Amino acid sequence: MISPLPDWREFDMARLLLLLEHKENARLLYEWLSEKYEVIFPGEPQRLGDSFDLGILDGPALDRLAGMVAARKKGEEPLFLPFLLVTSRQNVGFVTRHLWRTIDEIILTPIEKVELLARVEILLRARRHSVEAENRYFALANSSPVGVAIFQDEQIVFANEIFRQLHHEVLGAGKAEKVSKLLLAAYPPGGKTSEMGYRMELETKTGTRWLQCSDREITYRGRPATLRVVMDITQDILYEHELKQLSQRILDAQEQERRHIALELHDQIGQMLTAIKIGLQAVARTAESLPQTTAQQLEASIQTTEKALQQVRSLSLNLRPSMLDDLGLLPTLRWYIDQQARQSSLPIRLQTNLSDSRLSSTIETVCFRVIQEAITNALRHAQATQIMVSLYQEKDWLIVTIADNGTGFDVKAASQQATEGHSMGLVGMRERVVMAGGSFQIESSPQQGTTIHARFPLDIALPTYSMKETKS
Questions:
Q1: Does residue 3 fall inside a structural domain?
Q2: Which pLDDT tens digit goes with each residue over 45-74?
Q3: What secondary structure, in 3-state letters, does the chain show?
Q4: pTM
Q5: CATH number at residue 186
Q6: Which residue range forms the structural domain that includes residue 305?
Q7: What is the pLDDT of residue 467?
């Protein structure tokens, strides 16, 4: 059962428990206190374990009930449950042993009525203030926009309205007992909790729901308990999924546009430049009848056309190598790495344990783009003298690593610049990998080189053989 909040309307008639073995003092206190308060004797059905606001004892009763009094006070924490001791001046040693442990105030015999009423009222005010403080906490919890609950002994001892409503909607449970069982079953694996938070994915009749939870171990009513804060993030997850789909569509459209432009460059402009070159070469074959200056200009035009043709071919291949679609990732990487090594005069090595079997189109494209971006960055900015690319399968994962011995950089600072829009290379690589279902990590520091790791889950196992290396 979910415990209700304390109701302090009863403070108009606070409840006092008399535990005095001295009968005359008990009679006297009952007479004086019953005018203003509800006074309970232990001989009635109410006993030490029942509800009261102030306990009044004498020495013999405290000596006999000290353990029960201490347990009852601890069980009320963080609420303050006061106990008043009626004693004589001769029992100073006894009072010293118990003051602030099991009792909170003393009154000496013979008892003065005015002093008694004053001390009782002071203790009841302290009691009232502690309850009001807890009520303010619970009121704050009830006004919170997130679900808040306290678990203790496999039961929910407090749940705010948002928590009740959230779990009624998510779990379809209307009764507190049913909610409790379902919530306890939804604890993290092994019953472990973390203040850092975790997500729970629940299958309900209305579909999948996601909850963001955070648990903290606390002490409640003097005993260990768990405070749980819960948010329904289902809509956020759906928006995130839609955003990923949109980003993927944008990347797909970008690749399609790259493919289209590459084909246009190769098939249209490339062919036109080839035609121009052939025409110029045909004219050059009659150069004997042309003035020398004209012949030299013609030869220069042929060379310029050849350079333009090579540049168009290079642009077409860099935009979207046709062999990536026709032959797959490994042949394309071998060609690309060989091309970059020749142009930069740097050793670039490729290690792999994969055969030439095809991967999914998405993974092939993402792997090529990540490796392309990493090599470009290493050549342009890192002043690297060697680059290593490794591509291998480990069980059901494809592991891609690109390492260079260049100048390196501060990863945290670079990531901050990327979020501010100053450098999109790192962001682009990470987004591509994540959207393909993989993970992305950069290791780098100034003057220590850079290593980029990307991991992709594989739906099916790929044929592998011993690690082989290609040097360019």
A1: no
A2: 346 777 899 999 998 888 888 888 888 888
A3: CCCCCCCHHHHHHCEEEEECCCHHHHHHHHHHHCCCCEEECCCCCCCCCCCCCEEEEEHHHHHHHHHHHHHHHHHHCCCCCCEEEEECHHHHHHHHHHECCCECEEEECCCCHHHHHHHHHHHHHHHHHHHHHHHHHHHHHHHCCCEEEEEECCEEEEECHHHHHHHHHHHCCCCHHHHHHHHHHCCCHHHCCCCCCEEEEEEECCEEEEEEEEEEEEEECCEEEEEEEEEECHHHHHHHHHHHHHHHHHHHHHHHHHHHHHHHHHHHHHHHHHHHHHHHHHHHCCHHHCCHHHHHHHHHHHHHHHHHHHHHHHHHHHHCCHHHHHCCHHHHHHHHHHHHHHHHCCCEEEEEEECCCCCCHHHHHHHHHHHHHHHHHHHHCCCCCCEEEEEEEECCEEEEEEEECCCCCCHHHHHHHHHCCCCCHHHHHHHHHHHCCCEEEEEECCCCCEEEEEEEECCCCCCEEEEEEEEC
A4: 0.49
A5: 3.30.450.20
A6: 239-320
A7: 39
